[in-house]
């Protein structure tokens, strides 16, 4: 059996440095936090449910949704009473106008556009396309908080847009919506968020202390197994998509930490890390992620691999927690009808790129990927 060495553990999620408590609050309020019609809930899926419920679209309303999606956004839309009609993305992960046109009928009320991995879609084009057909444009910027396009914030062209604050900063939770019909403020009782903030602190320590990194490395698969077994026991088969109470406000810790964490340099720090990884691993990165647009705020660094599960394991042994980017679609998706989305789910592996990474962390990621690649190529050669 292969010996696992102590190694710093690097995850996709931004960590929470302990010195955050000594930081002054920032006065900077990036979009959508500077908008009167912005509402913040615990999760973006709750914001989606709230925004669509406030629209009262009726029982026949259909939304055009990419087959390449997380799943929780689909669940929130279904729970809000919408019908989903899926479209395939093109090789640049954009909707195809001709493909969309074929899906239109009198019941279609909205186009759902996902800004994948913090890379802006051409929202201005899609807004004009929607306006010409009297459709709503919905921008899913869950992974694109702080991203801009031609100086305009991502999310500002849509009739509504959604953001995950905790994907950009080491917060326990926080999902925002900005909408032309603002939903009600969350009214359920507030959670403390202490446990999740503590875990983000531990993640920070694990990036700096090999011993903690090792425990992290060993503990994570056990935790995943435990959560999965528990869900199976409770017959909650798609727990990762559950909406929960849509009136849940962001936790106390999120409200306390967010103004301390907001920083005008965050998107550029992420871009700097992305450029470094692109410089070393660029040939593994598929379009459109192989060149970095000016205003992107990368959520993760994607590489394309053929044996993703083995690759992930090899990365983990080297302290890098990659993520198979949306392995499981929402159960309502007829998977076989959308081959490109299926291939993306099986082969697109996301690596950490967040602003808390140091140069040594980035070098560790590059080395881990190169070693995993060489190891798997050698294994394939032996098997062949
Ligand atoms: C594209 C997209 N939309 C919506 C969501 C839902 O976000 P949350 O987990 O905050 O509900 C996610 C979550 O990963 C996502 O990736």
UniProtKB/TrEMBL annotation:
Q: Which domain of life is it from?
A: Bacteria
Q: Which GO terms describe its biological process?
A: polysaccharide biosynthetic process
Q: Which UniProt keywords apply?
A: Pyridoxal phosphate
- Is Cell membrane one of the keywords? no
**SUPFAM superfamilies documented for this protein:** PLP-dependent transferases (SSF53383)
**Any idea which GO molecular function terms this record carries?**
pyridoxal phosphate binding; transaminase activity
What family is reported?
Answer: Belongs to the DegT/DnrJ/EryC1 family.
The molecule here is called DegT/DnrJ/EryC1/StrS aminotransferase
């Amino acid at each position: 059996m292969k010996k696992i060495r102590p190694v710093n553990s690097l995850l996709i999620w931004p960590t929470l440095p302990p010195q955050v408590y000594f930081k002054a609050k920032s006065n900077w309020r990036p979009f959508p936090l500077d908008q009167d019609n912005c509402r913040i809930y615990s999760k973006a899926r709750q914001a989606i449910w709230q925004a669509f419920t406030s629209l009262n679209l009726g029982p026949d309303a259909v939304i055009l949704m990419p087959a390449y999606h997380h799943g929780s956004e689909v669940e929130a839309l279904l729970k809000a009473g919408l019908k989903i009609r899926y479209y395939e993305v093109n090789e640049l992960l954009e909707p195809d106008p001709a493909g969309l046109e074929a899906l239109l009928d009198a019941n279609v009320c909205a186009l759902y556009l996902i800004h994948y991995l913090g890379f802006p879609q051409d929202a201005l084009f899609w807004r004009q396309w929607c306006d010409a057909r009297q459709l709503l444009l919905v921008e899913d910027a869950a992974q694109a908080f702080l991203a801009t396009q031609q100086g305009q914030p991502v999310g500002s062209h849509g009739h509504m847009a959604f953001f995950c604050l905790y994907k950009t900063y080491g917060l326990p939770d926080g999902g925002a919506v900005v909408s032309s019909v603002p939903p009600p403020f969350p009214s359920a009782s507030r959670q403390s968020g202490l446990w999740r903030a503590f875990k983000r602190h531990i993640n920070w320590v694990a990036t700096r202390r090999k011993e903690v990194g090792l425990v992290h490395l060993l503990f994570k698969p056990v935790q995943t197994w435990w959560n999965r077994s528990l869900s199976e026991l409770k017959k909650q088969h798609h727990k990762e998509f559950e909406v929960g109470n849509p009136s849940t406000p962001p936790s106390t810790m999120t409200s306390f930490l967010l103004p301390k964490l907001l920083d005008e340099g965050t998107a550029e720090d992420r871009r700097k890390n992305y450029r470094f990884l692109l410089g070393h691993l660029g040939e593994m990165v598929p379009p459109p992620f192989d060149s970095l647009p000016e205003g992107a705020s990368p959520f993760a660094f994607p590489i394309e691999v053929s044996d993703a599960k083995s690759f992930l394991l090899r990365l983990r042994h080297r302290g890098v927690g990659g993520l198979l980017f949306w392995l499981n679609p929402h159960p309502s998706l007829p998977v076989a009808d959308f081959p490109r989305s299926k291939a993306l789910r099986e082969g697109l592996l996301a690596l950490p790129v967040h602003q808390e990474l140091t140069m040594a962390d980035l070098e560790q990621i590059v080395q881990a990927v190169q070693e995993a690649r060489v190891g798997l190529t050698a294994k394939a050669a032996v098997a062949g």
